[in-house]
Amino acid sequence: MIKRLSKNFFSLILGEGLSHLIGFIVNAYIARILGVEGFGIINYSLAFLTYLLLFSTMGLPTLGTREVARDHNNMRIIGEITGTRFFLTITLYIIFLLSLLIIPGNPVIKKIIFLYILTSIPYVFYLEFVFQAREEMEYVAGAKIIQYLSYFIIILIFLKNKNQIFSVPISFLGSYIIATLFLLIFFIQKYKKIYLSFDPLKSYQILLTALPIGFATIIYQALINLPVICLGVFHSEKEVGLFSAGFKIILLLLIVERAFYYLLFPIFSKQDQKKIGKSLAFFSQLILSITFLITIIGLIFAKNIITMIYGADFAPGSGILRILLLYFMIAPLNTIWGYGLIALNQEKKFFNVILLIALSNLILISILGYLLKGIGVAMALFISELFGLLIMKRNLNSVVYFNLFSSSEFKDFKDLLKE
């Protein structure tokens, strides 16, 4: 188990790190070629695809990961998840398409949105959840790297000036088709065929189970944008810039959170309650040790980090970064514990906690953001995340008990590592 965990963790860190690096470079290239206005159009149009994907997945891949982790040969659930996603995607695609045709607007922007939302169709068959469930993270990482690398290569070939703006969404679509084919090739090698199933009653039942996860994801995405919106409404663009500078660093550091989610969720999903309790305790201590160390280093060198990345003008944002680092220290725990609830078939409890975090976030960000600007928003994020952590732990302990600070968990975990 140690060898498998190490291999998977390395694959995920490599995949996330390289894909983010390539993504940063390609976005910088697009921005330079298209200019501020063109880059704004691209990001505006891409937002429509983001929302389409949010509502067309609705927690289904997470549900699929849990079920396939329990039985790798469960072709029925793979087919039903994919079939339900396909139905949702086509339905929402038609709605988006009709809206583009009916609602007046800039024809160039409407064409770019149309090209972007086409990506939702191959994304249905981007079967990442199957490989995550099988704990074959080299395929998950490989698909991410291939998608970003092919996107970059196609962009370099076809985007030479501002008039070629349509090549950006076309390149994005092409990159997802290539990455999807990569995963499908290995999927067919393992399962011999692609199974697509759609039964209205079964799809309704599956969707009903996945809805709490889907709504929680939508709420989470809304929370990410809430601090910037609040500062933009109450204060100046400068405050938005200072907060955003620190928050983007935190989002980069949260690669740790994503890596542990991909790594641990399939493990939790196939364990019984006793083993999940031991796993949660051990990995919680491990994650907290990592984020604590990063936080301490960040707190000491916050000003140096901000000025090195953004320049001396952003030095006042070092205080915001320090508070956001406290948020970073505990946020991965909340994610892992939340997916622990999902692994235990407690989707509704997971959603209820996320809803409470969202409400506390909304209230605190509005009050503290108005009174203390960027510092206040950062404080609000940390306080609401800490509140959510306590509630999440309480809900998790109602199903399976574990002690976060017990040293005996390291000894108990030795038996699990032999699996």
Automatic annotation (TrEMBL):
It is found in: Cell membrane. Coiled coil: none annotated. The keyword NADP does not apply. InterPro entries: Poly_Biosynth_Transport, Polysacc_synth. Its main location: membrane. Signal peptide: none annotated. One of its GO terms (cellular component) is plasma membrane. It is a multi-pass membrane protein. The keyword Cell membrane applies. Pfam families: Polysacc_synt. It comes from the Bacteria. The chain crosses the membrane at residues 12-35, 41-63, 84-103, 109-127, 139-159, 165-188, 209-234, 246-268, 280-301, 321-343, 350-368, 374-392. Keywords: Cell membrane, Membrane, Transmembrane, Transmembrane helix. This is Flippase. It comes from candidate division WOR-3 bacterium.
